[in-house]
Design a protein that fits this description.
Elements lengths: L4 E8 L2 E4 L6 E3 L7 E4 L2 E4 L3 H4 L10 E5 L3 E9 L12 H13 L1 E2 L4 E2 L2 E5 L3 E18 L5 E12 L3 H8 L8 E4 L6 H9 L5 H7 L13 E4 L4
Antiparallel strand pairs: 1-2, 1-3, 1-10, 4-7, 5-6, 7-12, 8-9, 10-11, 11-12, 13-14
Helix pairs in contact: 4-5
InterPro entries: CIS_tube_prot_N
Pfam families: CIS_tube (PF19266)
Protein name: Contractile injection system tube protein N-terminal domain-containing protein
Length: about 230
């Protein structure tokens, strides 16, 4: 049976990449009984302040943004020796490794590492950052050492600015967009994709202080303002 894994990741060239090696992989002793994958959308006009606009019989909702996805689950760590894969590992050691991968501060990046959560084909890749970790100790050795613990974990989606730009497709002309230039991109082409109006390239060029618009340097970040 496939075991749930939490894999340390690094951000390389605006991509979140899973790291290889046993030191970067935490494997659940016992798989979760369930997990919750949350997704949400935000709309303007749904707050109490905006819902009762004067002169309107009902609130008019308008899409504002996609909320980060969230993943929650609990796993059991065993140190009794019943589970073959952890016979030589204590519960304390397992918690230390989990913390090192997903929770502890990384001095190189000045923040905890993002992780990739994988569980067979059902949860093939969730890239996220740990937001909470709760440990409930449930079984003890006579000397007081924990022999079993329930770990409750919560993650929020991790995504880089460049990944967000690519995945969003830049199809909303009424929002400000940051776009990373790729080989072959031109300002008229990008304006056509975002605004359905290639003629706005001069406005975008002025906003980004570009001397010319015909040749764009790959990996340059350009700001595209909302339509007015």
């Amino acid at each position: 049976m496939a075991k749930l894994k939490i894999i340390r990741c690094k951000v390389n060239n605006d991509q979140i990449e899973a790291q290889s090696g046993d030191d970067n992989i935490f494997e659940a002793t016992i798989n979760p009984e369930k997990y919750t994958h949350k997704m949400g959308l935000k709309y303007s006009g749904t707050s109490q302040a905006g819902a009762g606009a004067i002169g309107k019989s009902a609130a008019i909702t308008k899409f504002a943004s996609t909320e980060p996805e969230k993943l929650d689950f609990s796993i059991t760590l065993d140190g009794t020796g019943v589970v073959a894969s952890t016979r030589d590992t204590t519960v304390a050691d397992q918690i230390t490794k989990l913390r090192d991968i997903a929770y502890d501060y990384d001095g190189d990046t000045h923040e905890p590492n993002p992780v990739k959560v994988v569980w067979g084909e059902g949860l093939d890749a969730f890239f996220g950052r740990l937001t909470s970790l709760s440990v409930e100790y449930t079984l003890f050795h006579p000397d007081g050492a924990a022999l079993r613990a329930k770990i409750t974990l919560a993650f929020v989606e991790a995504i880089t600015e460049a990944q967000e730009a690519r995945e969003a497709g830049r199809n909303s002309p009424d929002m400000t967009h940051m776009v990373r230039v790729r080989q072959g991109d031109t300002l008229p082409l990008l304006c056509q994709q975002i605004y359905s109006d290639a003629s706005r390239y001069l406005e975008v060029a002025r906003l980004n202080n570009l001397d010319g618009f015909r040749t764009l340097v790959p990996n340059t970040l350009l700001r595209f303002p909302p339509v007015r």
